[in-house]
Amino acid sequence: MTRFIRFVGGLALAASLAAPLATSASAQTDLSNQQIIQGLSGVTNDDPSLTVELLRKMAQDAVAANKPLPLDKSEIAKRLDKLAQITVQIQFALNSSIIRPESYETLGSIADALHHPILWNYKFVVVGNTDTTGTRAYNLKLSQERADAIVQALVVVYQVSPERLQALGLGQEALQVPSKPEDPINRRVQIFNIGTMGPMPKAVTNPQ
Amino acid sequence: MKGIVFGLGALLLAATAGTASAQTMSYAQAGALIAKSCGPSIERFCSKVNIGTGQVMQCLMQHQDQVPRACFDDFAAAQASIAKRVAAQSGSFKICAPSAQEFCSGVRPGDAQMLDCLLASTKVVRPACKQVLLDAGWAN
């Protein structure tokens, strides 16, 4: 648990340190397979009451009611913060859900982690987030399309089982840095571990 | 001089036949290879086609005369490697079952505990199991 929090903190720090130096095109968070596995395997933090449907509804309600953006982290972001997770930067074409080739490798790294036996029996939510540039409803829609595109690529190109993945667009409803809503650092893809697919298999025994 | 040539030959032999190595690349390497060889063509000719649709290759074919040959070769190689790695990963359980039964009795599978046991027993596990773990990308 502590290790996990420290890890995420380190990542966020690395990202915020890198952002002022890098242009948005090269701000790809370069994560090793091991780092991704580590970030996604803190399963003790599993929250069974937190479903994709619930999160989607929270985001849609916030947009429909045009709730003012909280100065602190939103309720959605707070609940998600508790799950095992990683944050990656995926480059998309402007205002579109087309994944740019420079991000194929990052998607592959995610696939390497998801195909590893440590994570084999777990399922995940791929969450797309935007900053506050553009309208709130448009951001919600675009982020859903982008999350869908990532899941589709993981399934079709990298052959991750579709049953293990769900896509969720949260638009600008779960800002990483609420004090800087227009900062591109808020544009990010998060992957959360949301629990096991089924019971773990039984031990093999030597038949004699 | 002869000695050097012989030495080189032996070295090459050792590199190709001596130590086992993975016959697949990682998914990240496969993605990087497609991006490197096809990225510019994809951005130029297929900028409206998402990689996850599985239609990118078809689109590139429609511009065959303008897309470098290496793109088609590397795209195919990356896809073949991905397929091989997926097969190794899903086949590993069965292929390693005899070794698991022999050396990892009582280990509860899940959270990679079985893999850890097999890797710790790498000197004794059967060659087919060792190779499938290499191709799966789970052993070095």
UniProtKB/TrEMBL annotation, chain A:
All residue ranges annotated as the OmpA-like domain in the record: 79-197
Signal recorded as keyword: yes
Pfam families per the UniProt record, alphabetical: OmpA
Keywords of this entry: Cell outer membrane, Membrane, Signal
Main location: membrane
Signal peptide: 1-27
InterPro entries: Bact_OuterMem_StrucFunc, OMP_bac, OmpA-like, OMPA-like_CS, OmpA-like_sf
CDD domains recorded: OmpA_C-like (cd07185)
Subcellular location: Cell outer membrane
Superkingdom of this protein's organism: Bacteria
Matches recorded under PANTHER family: LIPOPROTEIN YIAD-RELATED, STATOR ELEMENT OF FLAGELLAR MOTOR COMPLEX
Name of the protein in question: OmpA family protein
TrEMBL record, chain B:
Pfam families according to UniProt: Cys_rich_FGFR
Domain of life: Bacteria
Leader sequence residues: 1-22
InterPro entries for the chain: Cys-rich_GLG1_repeat, GLG1
Keywords, comma-separated and alphabetical: Signal
Record's protein name: Cysteine rich repeat-containing protein
